[in-house]
């Protein structure tokens, strides 16, 4: 029997399955909401006919790929130019032919990784097209990687390229990781942080165990975030959805200290507080 790639229209999670999958495991998880109108899980051919590619360059050497219209959670796939070959971190919901051609023009993908399942998007496409020797995901999150093959499970730290280092934060997911671009001073933060934007201007920060269910992180989880992320120097953050600057290490430490000062919550902390 032929296996086909299917994507959940609600969250964008891809599954390689015999027929239309009976459900989406990511939507069934406590960190995501269930689709109000039931399951809609189209195959790759249907998805590809619906979506167009868009890309932008928010910082030198960093290109973000998305789709129009948005699909699933609507993540951005970041392509980061690096010594020894490009690093792809997170993935767009799908890569139409012109997006793959643009990535090829920019030098392809040598190393591939993602923070956690909400940022995987169509990571499987990049593996199939460019066959990077390194595909890195937190070892504790392997249960979500059925659509692609992990070649380098990440424990606590992994240098993907000179100046580009993966750090495990846990918290949002057990294997959740961030990628620190030391040279550009950018933190590719996954879902460790949520940035509230006013247009393109960052106004507030928050952190969550489960965004849809509004479940806060525990104090120990925030302490681990603080110990890992607080040791990194950055002045901008890139979530799986947007690029935000300025957001600095000091801003993020204020958020964590606020969380540790009382009962955990998911309310955004204005960036003006304490600046």
TrEMBL record:
Xref: Gene3D superfamilies: Ribonuclease Z/Hydroxyacylglutathione hydrolase-like
Superkingdom classification of source: Bacteria
Domain Metallo-beta-lactamase: from-to ranges: 74-232
Listed name of the protein: MBL fold metallo-hydrolase
Lineage: Bacteria, Bacillati, Actinomycetota, Actinomycetes, Kitasatosporales
